[in-house]
Amino acid sequence: MSNVVEHIPTDMTVTANASLTLAALQAELAKGGQWLPIDPPSPGSLSVANLLAHNLSGPRRFAYGTIRDYVIGLRVRLADGRTIKCGGKVVKNVAGYDLSKLFIGAGNTLGAIVEATFKLRPLPDAEQFVRKSCATLEEAGTVITAALDSPLTPTILDLHNVNTNSSFIVLGFDGSQEEVEWQLARARDLGFLEATSLDYEKSFWATQPDSIRKISVLPSRLIETISQSGGGRFLARAGNGILYCHGAPQPLDNNGPVHLWQRAREEFDPKNILAALTS
Questions:
Q1: Rounded to whole angstroms, how far apart are CA atoms 145 and 220?
Q2: Is 279 a member of any domain?
């Protein structure tokens, strides 16, 4: 079933079947003035199950984190057909091991998520975006550093060259109208004079999505990594060090804890029934 199982606005929690799309879940939550502050691409076709299985995120990750930060309980079907529950339906839940985090980002290799419970946040009263053009990546790096060292607390800090011959830094702010206006005034002091939107985000993911590569680096190495990525179209979460680019080669160095995943898979799926990890 594709529906919201339980939404308790006073507790700011929701339980939903994992086949529900993220867009449908957000629409339901908005009726109570709440939302799940996760904004990956294509929410209209993205199920909660795939959101969790691949730990997807979007531009607001800089301020709000990833879906791992909002899961408080899961119901999962294991490879042998058993259904288990981990976590609970209340925010202050400290009983037992937090197995929920193990399944998030596991690419359906440990089990199939069938239901999830999330903690929520109130919808902000206002949200606005501004951008600044940079002639070179070096200039962009300087402006990003200045923004991070300033009193600004943006929800979005992106760098991209989507549909343009120059690079743009995008800042996003949300909160009360007064808070947003104060932030915009401080951003103007740094040269962010042009209002914008998140259309660049939709445009980037709509163009040849199969050729997009993800590279994660220290934020301090982001500009250097972009320079070495081949000169194609890119979209970077400048505050998190996450770079998406068209046509760049996959990094050869993979320092992920592969041996830990193998041990977990042997425990949860000894007969290798579930899909191989692909993301």
A1: 9
A2: no
Same domain, 113 and 136: no
Q: How many domains does the chain have?
A: 2
- What does the pLDDT look like over 233-265, one tens digit per residue? 999 999 999 999 987 666 545 556 677 778 888
Supply the CATH number for residue 28's domain.
3.30.465.10
Shared domain for 143 and 216, answered yes or no, is yes
The domain in which residue 176 lies consists of 126-246
Give the domain CATH number at 182.
Answer: 3.30.70
Q: What percent of the chain has pLDDT over 90?
A: 75
Q: Are residues 176 and 222 in the same domain?
A: yes
Given this model, what pLDDT does residue 90 score? Answer: 74
User: HSE-up of 98 (CA within 13 Å, CB side)?
Assistant: 11
